[in-house]
């Protein structure tokens, strides 16, 4: 079964002479022997990218293509890539360069892409790069520029702006509906949380009177503003006097006052019991070992008393 051809339609034109022109061009010949290619790129990432920067860098190759191809046609026609591959392969073989299928295809495809970019942008626009000015001036000798239709450009811009305005309008309507729903929901929450607020609001709408009556309410007395003293006023104002407490002292306080008076030189009343079931701590009708134990106990009580006295003095 014969293989279907998906290539370009055969054009009765010739690009013969390209290989000889590339070999005889001193700059291109030197570049090919140094880098292995007739084309140059600003960076490895830009290799194969079709833009005006790369077109200006390779203006020598494109100028040769214009002089060989454009005089054969009255209208712009692109160069077949197969014809370019044959010429590139011949030139690489003549210069003893590696002529693999990949390298030949890469150079031929890049040449056709740059030439196609030049022809498609041949609309008479002003150029600033002198290399591009020279290329378009040479191309204009054979093919007249074809300006772009301003009507089509205007319709495209107007259609894009109209679609953008329509999209913004739809978003605005959607936000408005969400805001209205949020407002209604907020009113319902207020009525559910505090029904008195709704009652006061209805009373004020009836005429400002009380709820359920037709009498107008008396004017409310404005509340006086709360005065908070400043730090300077606090510092200048005297400290408030501490009034004595009228509560009845408990037994522990009376016992503490009595022991404090006895410690400072007074006499311990016989009714005071330091936690013992006997009347006075200085009894001599008991055995010696009991008296020693009782003295130790009294000393511990006195130490506790001193601690309580010091703590009370610190608090006061």
Plain-language structure description:
α1 crosses α5, α5 packs across α6 and α8 crosses α9. This protein has twelve helices and no strands. By secondary structure, the chain is mainly α. The N terminus is likely disordered. Helices cover 58% and strands 0% of the residues. Among the domains are: 123 residues, no CATH class; 64 residues, no CATH class. The chain is rod-shaped, with a radius of gyration of 55 Å.
Write a short abstract of this structure.
By secondary structure, the chain is mostly helical.
Q: Which key phrases capture this entry?
A:
316 residues, mainly alpha, rod-shaped, disordered N terminus
What is the makeup of the main sheet?
none
Rounded mean pLDDT is 71
Number of strands: 0
CA radius of gyration is 55 Å
- Oligomeric state of the chains in view: single chain
Q: Bin the strand percentage.
A: under 5%
Helix percentage = 55-70%
Given as residue ranges, the uncertain stretches (5+ residues, pLDDT < 50) are 1-5, 178-214, 272-284
| Beginning-to-end CA distance, first to last residue | 117 Å
Name the helix and strand elements from N-terminus to C-terminus, one letter apiece. HHHHHHHHHHHH
Given the structure, what is the number of helices?
12
What is the approximate shape? rod-shaped
Structural class: mainly alpha
Biased composition (Acidic residues): 178-197
Biased composition (Basic and acidic residues): 165-177
Region (Disordered): 150-255
């Amino acid at each position: 079964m014969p293989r279907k051809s998906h290539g370009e339609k055969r054009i009765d034109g010739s690009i013969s002479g390209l290989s000889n022109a590339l070999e005889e061009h001193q700059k291109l010949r030197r570049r090919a022997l140094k880098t292995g290619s007739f084309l140059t790129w600003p960076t490895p990432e830009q290799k194969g990218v079709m833009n005006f920067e790369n077109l200006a860098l390779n203006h020598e190759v494109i100028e040769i293509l214009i002089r060989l191809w454009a005089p054969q046609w009255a209208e712009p026609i692109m160069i077949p890539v197969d014809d370019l591959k044959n010429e590139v392969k011949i030139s690489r073989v003549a210069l003893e360069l590696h002529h693999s299928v990949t390298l030949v295809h890469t150079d031929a495809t890049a040449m056709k892409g740059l030439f196609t970019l030049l022809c498609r942008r041949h609309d008479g626009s002003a150029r600033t790069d002198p290399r591009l000015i020279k290329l378009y001036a040479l191309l204009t000798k054979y093919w007249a520029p074809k300006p772009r239709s301003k009507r089509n450009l205007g319709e495209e811009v107007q259609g894009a702006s109209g679609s953008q305005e329509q999209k913004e309008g739809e978003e605005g309507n959607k936000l408005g509906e969400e805001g209205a729903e949020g407002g209604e929901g907020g009113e319902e929450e207020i009525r559910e949380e505090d029904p008195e607020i709704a009652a006061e609001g209805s009373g004020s709408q009836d005429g400002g009177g009380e709820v359920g009556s037709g009498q107008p309410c008396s004017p409310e007395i404005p509340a006086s503003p709360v005065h908070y003293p400043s730090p300077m006023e606090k510092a200048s104002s005297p400290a408030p006097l501490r009034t004595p407490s009228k509560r009845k002292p408990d037994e522990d306080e009376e016992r503490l006052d009595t022991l404090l008076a006895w410690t400072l030189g007074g006499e311990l009343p016989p009714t005071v019991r330091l936690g013992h079931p006997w009347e006075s701590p200085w009894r001599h009708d008991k055995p010696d070992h009991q008296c020693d134990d009782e003295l130790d106990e009294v000393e511990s009580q006195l130490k506790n008393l001193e601690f309580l006295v010091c703590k009370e003095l610190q608090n006061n």
